[in-house]
Amino acid sequence: MKAIILAGGLGTRLRPLTSTCPKPLLPVGNLPIVARVILALRRQNIREFIFLLHYQPELIMKTLGNGKTFDAVFQYECLKEDLSTAGSVKFIGDQIKETSLVFSADILAEVPVESMLQFHRERNALVTLALHPMPAPLPFGIVLRGQNGKITRFLEKPTWPQVYSDWINAAVYIIEPELVDQIPNHGTPAFFETEVFPPLAQKGAEIYGFPLSGYWRDVGTPEDLRRANLDVLHGHLPRIMLTTEEQLALDAGASQPFLAAPSSMIADGALVQDSVIGNNCRIKAGAKIFRSVILDNVKIKSGAYIDGAIIMNDVRLGERVRLEEDSLIGAGATLRDAVLVQKNGTVRQGKKIAPNKIINAVKIKSIFSLCLCNYGQR
Fold first, then answer.
1. Total-model pTM
2. Which of 124, 128, 132, 303 lies in the 20 to 30 Å Cα band around 168?
């Protein structure tokens, strides 16, 4: 069975992080999100992958290569327009000749593919959706399952009075080639969640829900990106998504307060806890870093205080810079001495902030509200 990886989204809820890096390449434990997806599927004997790309496709292709690193075969299809989930699959419809797995590149999901495939075949399903239980499902799409797991109703982003189920669409599907004919016109945007599955369910089509019981996370917001990195650090990410080295460390009971790439240098006297640090970073003595994700080539001077931030590549932080919770620093930014970025503050890529400046959240509060309200969008 081939895996079709939806990796073309713009990542608007993650800006400015995704202004210079497509969402599938953002790190979870110093490995791209999409690489975690590939690892999990390769360990279940899926070897052929088709990546549907749109935003910054060259960077994704350059990073992943031809698949040899994963002992896999990678095929890339670049879409000139953002066709959304179903529209992207329709774009390659003539290549879907057999039962296929559709997987979103920003979803970390512990999916037992063989069991899900057996479930799918036993019911002669047109499509089977992986479902995840979510006590507070408002930001997602919920489904109602009838006898034998058949889905009879879909509702995207319900209000509390509308909640009839805590099972959400986990954005992982097994599809038959015939489903392609049910997707709206070729070359136009279409969502599975709103334009394909609900009308089919109303017609009584063979759409089924396969319940998941393991790990699931939509890495679509800055908060979820940080949480996914903490999951790696604390040993919560499923083994199937870990590299061999990470598995060995987990088996050995290795415990450390942070994860840093070998090429990074953290001075004695620096305090780093519950954080992930990328390649070629330099952290001076006296710096304090908590619950943060720091990408490559970041330089942090003495006295800096960072708590709950995400810092992109090639950032320079001067002495006594303070980054408060949920602050986002875009690639190539420079914050000179004693700059304060308040809670939920954003510094866009390439910006140079003069000493002693205060960056507040006034201009970006609407962005974070959008993150929370539109949590289920991709």
1. 0.91
2. 124
